[in-house]
């Protein structure tokens, strides 16, 4: 049996956007019946933010067991089929991956310090984009270069 594709989502602190993206991607892949190994990491490890846990619980996804980690804390960190950065800082410091790794940068607004409505908006925008990612992987198509379907993703 072939090994499932591997996807890594990177952010600066692995405390909010990348954590939400990891959970959303895993759930979307599970619902699609797509065997996809999903991890998230940060350029620095901190802690998973309470507001991330709150808004994800609202959609039935539990982040209570998630921990903030760096790239070196994920299994086989240099062997990913897909690497997605969700903040500009992580995109700038993302290591170079071998040629077979597809990298995409989808910058999302940082919800930290904002209202729960802001957190929900980022969660929902991540969900739209990562649904597109899972569907394209499922079809064997190239990952979207950007989020053309979600023009408000970086709006303040």
UniProtKB/TrEMBL annotation:
**Which superkingdom heads the taxonomic lineage of this protein's source?**
Bacteria
What CDD domains does UniProt report for this protein, alphabetically? LMWP_ArsC
UniProt keyword Hydrolase present: no
What SUPFAM superfamilies does this protein map onto?
Answer: Phosphotyrosine protein phosphatases I
Q: Which Pfam families match?
A: LMWPc
Q: Where is the Phosphotyrosine protein phosphatase I domain?
A: 5-136
- State what protein this is by name: Arsenate reductase
Q: Which UniProt keywords apply?
A: Arsenical resistance
Keyword Coiled coil part of the UniProt annotation = no
């Amino acid at each position: 049996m072939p090994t499932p594709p591997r996807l890594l989502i990177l952010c600066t602190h692995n405390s909010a956007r990348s954590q939400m993206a990891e959970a959303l991607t895993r759930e979307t892949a599970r619902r699609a019946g797509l065997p996809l190994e999903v991890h998230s990491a940060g350029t620095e490890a901190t802690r998973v933010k309470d507001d991330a846990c709150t808004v994800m619980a609202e959609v039935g996804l539990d982040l209570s067991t998630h921990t903030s980690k760096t790239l070196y804390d994920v299994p086989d960190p240099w062997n990913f089929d897909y690497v997605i950065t969700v903040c500009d800082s992580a995109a700038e410091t993302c290591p170079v991956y071998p040629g077979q790794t597809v990298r995409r940068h989808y910058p999302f607004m940082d919800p930290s310090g904002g209202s729960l409505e802001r957190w929900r908006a980022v969660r929902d925008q991540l969900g739209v984009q990562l649904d597109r990612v899972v569907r394209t992987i499922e079809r064997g198509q190239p990952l979207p270069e950007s989020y053309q379907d979600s023009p408000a993703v970086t709006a303040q």
